[in-house]
Amino acid sequence: MGVLWRNAAMSKQEAFHKITIPPEIEAEMTPAVRAFVLAAFARFEARIDELETTVKELQEQVQKLTPQNSSVPPSTQHPHARPKSKPKTGKKKRKRGGQKGHSKHSRELIAPEECNEIISCIPDHCRRCGDVLEGTDAEPIRHQVWDLPPIEPIVTEYQQHRLHCPCCGITTCGALPPGVPTGQCGPRLAAFLGLLMGHFRQSKRRAAMFLEDLLNVPCSASWTVTIQKIVSASLAAPYEQLRSELSQQKQLFVDESPTKQKNTKAWLWVAVAPMFAVFGIFLNRKRDSLKALVGNYQDIILNCDRAKMYFDCKCLQWCWAHLKRDIQKLRDSPDRQVKRLGDDLMRQKKLLFEHWRRYKAGKIKWSTFQNLIRPVRTTFEALLLRGVFSGNTKLTGMCKELYEHRDWLWTFTRVQGIEPTNNTAERSLRPAVIYRKLSFGTQSASGSRFLERILTVSETCRLQKRSVYEFIIAAVTAHYATQQPPSLLPNHVDQLITSTAA
After folding, report:
1. Cα–Cα separations (whole angstroms), residue 261 to 12, 187, 243, 282, 362
2. What does the alpha-carbon distance between residue 447 and residue 300 come to, in Å, rounded to a whole number?
């Protein structure tokens, strides 16, 4: 029937004359057919206008989504687009840089006997009259310069001699000493390269360039993959030992983030205990992945967001940082009813954290904190009920979910030692998210195993204030010698500290 094109300013009859219809078909059209075409065209006009209005509303909603009122990552927002923080009433805005009267921070000089070389700078003549000067200064001005020595790799050659037996004629070759690798990579180099690719988030090619240009070690991208497998195998036992301990914890901070494994979407999970963290990469975000990582978590208090896969847990602590963003989204709404409820909820949230900060600072006791929270909880839940029965579709869904599971908002007020937010897991997950942005995920299941193990070791050593480099060296050394690898369990750390002090 040709091409229809519309003009909103036209009447139906004017629009009809703009329809391109073959003459032979137009001649056969009866008045009834013409009326049908005009009616269909009018319906299309109304539907198009309705869809354009919907698209416009959705575009406005997307433009209003920020990291402050949604789960949009902060990295997606341009720094210049972020709202400027307003100075508190009665206080002047601080200038950039060090403030007047702040304590000085400088590098302390080491003792002269710790220096590799001491060069005395003694003047030989007077800078004014040119007369000859003799003697030395009892208290010279000390100036120390830090530098790096020329880096040369340590290459050890093992010569395996083959000797013939004069009795039976059999040739016997000398065996390598225990712990010597069959390849060309020693434990310290393997640990360094593993950290470079995992902990410091460098690509295989960049890591190979670093070894060649700075350490004078010949290296190719394929060799880095071989060493990555060695490091991954060395960390397998300590990793599994930590993961088996997750189900024995009383509380865990749990979070997940999307990633990729080759061309398949995957999810990077993290479970953080007080003294260690365990990462895992799985191909879905379902409850099965959580069970594969943590094990039986029914008796554990999980700090998490409001994702559905956590709902079968007996006790949760929903993250108030996530809830704050949802409340801020209500406050940013153009709907006055929604905005008012958002303001009222935010007021109670601020009062809640004011009491929490006073308790954490030791200004009030636990019992006093609980007494102060009771009226805050009563008011907050009453506001949720107001949203449930508001009849506003922008409020009913969120408020109903929060009210039905309201006990999960207040676990930290009943159980001492529980945190109200999931920021601990968020902080542990941030390096892994940066790794994903730089590398676009892993390229194989083997690469995923390496990443989850190196992230686990890195974050756990940070929590335990241990050297991640020294731990990986010990793990690779044990792997080469087929010995028991070192442990990352907190009680092993205590024993190590005690024995070292003794």
Report:
1. 56, 28, 21, 9, 46
2. 30
Confidence category of residue 74, pLDDT binned at 50, 70, 90: low
Residue whose C-alpha is closest to residue 349's, from 317, 323, 386: 323
pLDDT over 70 (residue 72): no
Q: Rounded to two decimals, what is the model's pTM?
A: 0.76
Q: Name the 3-class secondary structure at 255.
A: strand
C-beta separation of 208 from 226 below 8 A: no
Cβ-count burial of 3 within 10 angstroms (0-12 exposed, 13-18 middle, 19+ buried)? exposed
- Contact at 8 Å (CB) between 493 and 273? no
pLDDT at position 214 over 70: yes
Closest CA to 25 of 33, 35, 14: 33
Q: How far apart are CA 305 and CA 78, in angstroms?
A: 26
Buried b (16+ CB within 10 A) or exposed e, 268-295: bbbbbbebbbbbbbbeebebebbeebbb
- Return the DSSP state at 83: P
Distances (CA, A) of 117 to 63, 111, 120, 249: 62, 12, 10, 52
State the Cα angle at 415 between 411 and 419, rounded to 5°: 65
Distance, CA of 491 to CA of 497 (rounded, Å): 10
For every residue of 219-246, DSSP letters joined together read --HHHHHHHHHHHHHHHHHHHHHHHHHG
- Within 8 A by CB and 6+ apart from 302, the residues are 251, 252, 253, 254, 310, 313, 315, 316, 317
pLDDT score of 31: 79
| Tokens 């006009």 found at | 45
Q: Which amino acid is at 260?
A: K
* CA–centroid distance for 33 within its chain: 64
Residues 6 or more apart whose CB falls under 8 angstroms from that of 300 comprise 247, 249, 250, 251, 252, 294, 313, 315
Helices (H), 246-304: 287-294
Distance of CA 319 to CAs 133, 257, 331, Å?
73, 16, 19
Decide if 437 contacts 266 (C-beta within 8 A): no
- At residue 78, the pLDDT reads 60
Give the end-to-end CA distance of the chain in Å, rounded to a whole number: 95
